[in-house]
Amino acid sequence: MQKKILVLLSIFxxxxxxxxxxxxxxxxxxxxxxxxINKYAxxxxxxxxVLFKSLFVKDVETKFVFDPSFFGGETIIIKGIDDxxxxxxxxxxxxxxxxxxxGNLLISESGNSVKVKSNLNSRxxxxxDINRSVSLWGYYETYLKKINGHWKIIRHxxxxxGAEE
Length: 165
Hints:
Layout: H1 2-20, H2 27-46, H3 49-54, E1 56-65, E2 75-79, H4 81-92, E3 95-110, E4 113-126, E5 133-147, E6 150-164
Parallel strand pairs: 1-6
Antiparallel strand pairs: 1-2, 3-4, 4-5, 5-6
């Protein structure tokens, strides 16, 4: 009898915890969301702009908040996939190669979308100087929505914490 009570109590606490944190996402949805974030990193590094564009809704909103050690601490706000693609292509053209390591994903529901907070450690190797590179650290806050059965990025914000050249 005690085991049954403990099992029922455990199930109740687990379901209450899940409900309180809005964690109603299936394991399949979580894996699909993680896949979108991973595809984002690979698309940027491989300059695969077809894949890159496929991850976003047409009216995506993006924001980059740089600390003073990178781009002088400016904030860049871009609306729409076409303008965002133009920005990504221009900034990517500075580098012969790059590597985005995105990890520690925290996925939570946020209204009718999900929010993914993830850490970034990125290194870019400049095209014009083989001995020059830049490392950038920060985090993303990415919002996704399931549209026609596929998770799409509707908002993508980056906050830099530091850089080293």
